[in-house]
Every structure is written in structure tokens, then in C-alpha cells.
Amino acid sequence: MRALKLFTVLVLCVLAVNVSAQQKKYVMVIHGGAGTILKKNMTSEMEAAYIAALTKALQAGYAEIKAGKASLDAVEATIHVLENDPHFNAGKGAVFTHNGRNELDASIMDGKTLMAGAVAGVTTVKNPISAARAVMEKSEHVMMVGAGADQFAKDAGLEIVDPKYYWTKERWDGLQQAIKEDSTKAVLDHGSKKSELLGSKNHDYKFGTVGCVALDKAGNLAAGTSTGGMTNKKYGRVGDSPIIGAGTYCNNETAGISCTGWGEFYIRNVVAKTVSDLMEYKGLSVNEASKIAIDKVGKMGGDGGLIALDKKGNVSMTFNTEGMYRGTITADGKVEVSIYK
After folding, report:
1. Does domain 30-170+202-329 have CATH number 3.40.50.720?
2. pTM listed for this prediction
């Protein structure tokens, strides 16, 4: 009888642990880009720097949530950290266009109201995610581009910088290498697999588009994405990051989503909205929906990944590349950061 009681207690303990694991609630998820990220190519110092940067970003957003602020504040604070870190292709570490310029894109969306804001091709805003939020909250529009978006950001009181602020030697060298290898085709920044599309090759001169999804204490979701785009991009090219439904989408009834990868494929597949629609209309989980969306990108020839967080705190970090800089933080403040597949 004593043995039976001990066995019963053991079974109940195991069940309790399993239930606890299943009920882990995430309040934030972030990404720092997907690509051919292999441990053999990473120095211990570089790996530590990425882990530290992702951890710092998560903690910045978590501080906002813990203080009872809105998920929008958490997303903005988190992405500020990543935009200010030259390891990532956003803000300070943005890649160069064919003409040697830095043209930045960003978007943000409120899951409670479905309000959204975006900027594309900005060249003087220190933190493009804040410009996207300003478009959402201080204008009647959803997207502004180029010089007009820069002027709007300045009028909104955001920090404006000289374009030289974005310059980093690593990104400049990446542009020179891209031009040297292929002077007529744009070079993608997220992976290294080859593509027959337009005869282009998909090189890994950088990866690092950044994104964040947050769930606040009131149960509201928000999502945001920020990027410098493609190395060697030409003629005013804009990718998926500032396009609501393609690179960013958020709805309290489903999930918040931020994408990273070969933008053209994300636009053509409306990836972020697809995840939400699969959850809303088919009743799929956030992880099931995310996998289907990324599989569609892969079958068409594109690569990359996405992060998603649903209203219950379930998270998905799905990608079809060798790695994706990513991390989460739970409601109790536990940080989890990963890099490789």
C-alpha cells in the first residue's frame, strides 16, 4: 500500500510538472534576423555579443511591461536597443544601397485597435520604429516614405541624425564585396542559398532585420519590425518589413507577427497576415500557422523566418535557414536566447 501511495504521488508530481511546462506564458519574443548562421563561423566573442544584445533588448521591453505600460511601449523600447546596436541591420548597423546610402524601413501595429504605422526609405531618423509609431498615432495615414517621412519624423520631434551616423565599416565592406561579385543584381542579406530568380545569388553579407512582439498586462498585443533592407539594393527598393500584412501584423484575437527574410517572397505570400488568418479561420495554433506560412515561402524559393506570440502567451519562432537570432522572456522575467537551428 505504501508503495502504491508513493507511485501515485510520483505520477501526480510528473503531471503537475507537465502542466506547468505547458502553461509557460511568454510576454515577449524578438528576432535579430535569420540566415546562414553557423556555430563554426562564429567566434565566442561574437556569439557572446549577440546574446548580450538580445538579452538587453528583451530586458528593456520587459521593464516596460512590468511597469504596467502598453505592449506598444515594450515593442518600441526593445527595438530601440536593437536599432542602436551595429550588430543588426537596423538603425546604426543598416546595410548600404547600391548608391552607398542607408535607407531604412520600419512598421508597428497595435493588436487592440488594429491601428498601424510604417515608414520606408528614411535616411535621417535615428530610430525608424519611433517614426512608424508617430505615423500611426500622429497622422491619418499608415505609411510614409522617403523625404516626406523624414520631414514628418522631424516635425514630430523625433531624434534626427546625419546620415553618416549609420555608417559602419562592416556594412560598407559588405557593399563593396557585393558590387565586386555582382554589379547588376541586388544581393540579399539573409541567407546563402543560391536562387535562379533573375539570375541572382543570395549571399550572406549581413543578416539582422529586427522585430519584436509583446503582450502586456492588459492582454494587448503589439508587433514591430525594423530593417536596413538588402545590401546593394537599387532604385528605391522596399521589402516586407514596412508592409502591414507582409512583414508585420498584429491582432489581439489571433497573434502578433514579425518577419525576417527575403522580403519579396514575404510580400508575395502576405506572410504575417497569413499566420493570423490561419489562426482565425482555421483555428490553428500559432505554431502550426507559422510553420505553414514559412513552408510556403520555402516552396517558392525564399528563405527566412518569423516570430509570433498569441494572446495566451504561446510563442513560435519558425525559420527555414541555418539559424535565427531570437529570444523570449516569460511573465516571470526568465530570458531565453538562441542563435542556431
Report:
1. no
2. 0.89
